[in-house]
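A protein record pairs a chain with a discrete description of its three-dimensional fold. The following entry can be read in just this way.
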Amino acid sequence: MSYFKTSEVAGPLGVDIWQMAFLMEQRYGADAMLESVALAEHLLEDGDCQGAAMWHRIRDAIEWLQAKAPAKGEAVH
């Protein structure tokens, strides 16, 4: 997998965050959150704070997708 700085490639926004989270979960399964954190750390080391923030948003979406039950206080439809 190649790593792109945010300034080199437009990062995913909105729906794309969820699409990336879904793809990460399909590819890495239970390790998807760990992989997204590793990517964020790599980008931080390279000085790409925006790219790292994007991967933290993807990590949050993965966490939500992998949740077994609604979070405390979260509305259930």
In short: Residues 6 and 66 are 26 Å apart (CA to CA). Residues 49-66 form the longest helix (18 residues).
